[in-house]
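Request: Give me one sample?
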Amino acid sequence: MKTMSVAFFTRKERINEGNEVPIFMRITIDGKRAEFSIKEKIEEEKWLNGRAVGASNKSKNLNDLLDSYTAKAKEYYRYLYDRNESVTALKVSDLMKGKNTSDKTLLWLCDKYISKISNLIDNGYADATLTRYQTTKRHIEAFLKKKYKKSDILITDLNYEFISEFETYFKRTRDCNHNTSMKYLKNLKAIVNLALKNDWLDKDPFRNFACKVQPVERDFLTEEEILKVKSKKISIERLDIVRDAFVLACYTGLSYIDIKGLTKGHIIKGVDGEQWIYANREKTNVMSKIPILPEAERIIIKYSSGQHYKDTGCVIPVPSNQKVNAYLKEIADMAKINKNLTFHVARHSFATLMLSYGMSIESVSKMLGHNQIRTTQIYAKVTEEKIAKEMIAFKNRNIKR
């Protein structure tokens, strides 16, 4: 059985105008402390060695209160011990403060967070976000069974070691790369933040853990490669539809889910009198405002008389994301594109193409529907062609001098 000691002390630096100092209780179990205010004050000269001095009723009543706090701490210590829980100073302190975290578990916390997201779908959160946290919960369940042989743990048992072992689980057991592992850990961190905000946890188990992702080289298509995909003759209908959806994304910057949900209602007359796409991004619910380029308009017109358009109002009958990315591999082979073609490559290609032609990052950010410029900077790949053009211009300017 672990050893526990209780002590009371004052904070002299917090003395008030009446020469009173606040009283704190310190619980120590196996060398680890938890401290909190008991919401009582005493004149500094009437406090000695953790007790109130003097024969006054006020001093006697205060000492009786301190004794009751000590007895209550021992009672909670025994309560935790009898339940076969890990007994810590923090847990006893929480019980003393009325914060009973002994029934709050990690999976309960996950459900709490997932419920919050579920209630805010289409009001700040997307379905994909809900799915991501549901997947994170499943990983936590698998990790608990593998590492700890438990179906759940108390949130107060979360610590740096748990976080570090969870990272190892993704990298070794799940064979995830570093960035994928960090994404799941960031999801767990968001869940833990819910406990911190509600004062269910006093200390952040992530406080010494940095969820840093490593920079990656993102594939994009050059203008020449986009033209190769666009002009490739494709007789297979499923591939032709996916190719058109991909090219439309290359010229609008819309994501897969936004292309799939693109309707005639999103196409309106813009400030310049031309056709624009005005659509809230499914992922962030931020408005994207995009002038329709001729190549994009051609694809929209192509499908405007189709049955899918008439039945649903959606521009292109795009299949599932999984099928789209599988079909894009076939299209890349047919067009002789030696890159890992996914639908998100189209969005990256649009951003890179616009930036390489001198469009400001602020304008590109607006079209992409980003909240912050730094998000757009992920796509702001400086192409070798752009570097070459700028260097030639610089050389020519110096030659003329």
User: Anything to note?
Assistant: The chain has a mean pLDDT of 88. The CA atoms of residues 24 and 37 lie 4 Å apart. The chain has 16 helices and eight strands.
